[in-house]
Amino acid sequence: PQSIRNVHVTDKSTVANDPQVLALVEEIGKELGKDGRILLRESGTEPVIRVMVEAKTDHLAEKYVNQVIKVIEDKGHAV
Questions:
Q1: pLDDT at 23
Q2: In sequence order, what are the residues at sequence separation of 6 or more whose Cβ sits closer than 8 angstroms to the Cβ of residue 25?
Q3: What is residue 9's three-state secondary structure?
Q4: Sign of torsion, CA 51 56 59 63?
Q5: Residue 43 confidence (pLDDT)
Q6: Is 2 strand, coil or helix?
Q7: What pLDDT was estimated at residue 66?
Q8: Are 50 and 43 in contact (CB under 8 A)?
Q9: pLDDT grade, residue 74 (50/70/90)?
Q10: What average pLDDT does range 26-50 have in this prediction?
């Protein structure tokens, strides 16, 4: 199962290089291990960050996507 969400942000590169966001992505990647993956990607044409998670279940994929988006919002990066 896969979950993808787009987050409209003030500055894509700021989000993509935010230490707290990167630390969470790395932590989730370790938790997923070989059972899934996480990807944080800047849109090439819009002020959007794409958060994609593949996991064993839909529930886990949604949970991890929501965790990353919450940090992006809490840090004030989301529009």
A1: 98
A2: 38, 40, 68
A3: strand
A4: negative
A5: 96
A6: strand
A7: 98
A8: yes
A9: very high
A10: 97
Q: What percent of the chain has pLDDT over 90?
A: 100
CB count within 10 Å of CB 13 equals 10
Residue 55 tokens, joined: 């996991």
Of 16, 18, 7, the closest CA to residue 47 belongs to 7
73 and 14 in contact (C-beta within 8 Å)?
no
Joined together, the tokens standing for residue 69 give 């988006």
Q: Residue type for 38, please?
A: I
Tokens of 74: 């809490």
Instruction: Determine the angle formed by the axes of helices 19-32 and 58-74, rounding to 10 degrees.
Output: 170
**Strand partners for 50:** 6, 41
Q: Which residue has the tokens 């949970």?
A: 63
Q: What torsion, rounded to 10 degrees, do the Cα atoms 44, 46, 78, 4 define?
A: -60
pLDDT band at 26 (very low <50, low <70, confident <90, very high): very high
